[in-house]
Amino acid sequence: SFERTISFISNEKQKGNSVVLMKGIFDLIHPDHIKCLELLKQVANVLVVLIIRDRQTLTIKPGRPIQDELSRLKIMSSLKPVDFCTFDYDSTDPITGIYSRDIDVQKMTQLNPDIWAVSKGRKVKFENYNLGSIKILEVPEGQDHSTTKIIERILRVYSNQ
After folding, report:
1. Which residue, of 22, 31, 56, 100, has the greatest Cβ tally within 10 A?
2. CA dihedral 8, 84, 92, 113 (to 10 degrees)
3. Can you tell me the distance from the alpha carbon of 130 to that of 106, in angstroms, rounded to the nearest whole number?
């Protein structure tokens, strides 16, 4: 739950640990995901991962996810660099029913990690917001692997069967 995530981050910071948080779909885990998680674990003592829920994933990437949210949560929770993993908070505007950057920032500031890791190109979307002491870190996109590339390869290889 959101409150449990706030409590976890707060407790870790009280212990003197730095906390980095990243949100993502993490549909088909591949080496570039692992590389990113290992990089994040080097910039902070504690790595928190929020898994984007299935219904939100459908709006971001139609036809996805391949794996349901419980499977993605179980897999991500078992990875060595990840210290805490749960479902992403809801950033949907209750009036419009669509993603709200304002709500996202409000919730992130409540969580209050030291670092918010975002995909390359997303940092600029949050630069005009007051995030308090939270620093935004852009993580490079993987060059060699992606869920989309994996799906395309599977379709290519097995299209005639």
Report:
1. 22
2. 50
3. 9
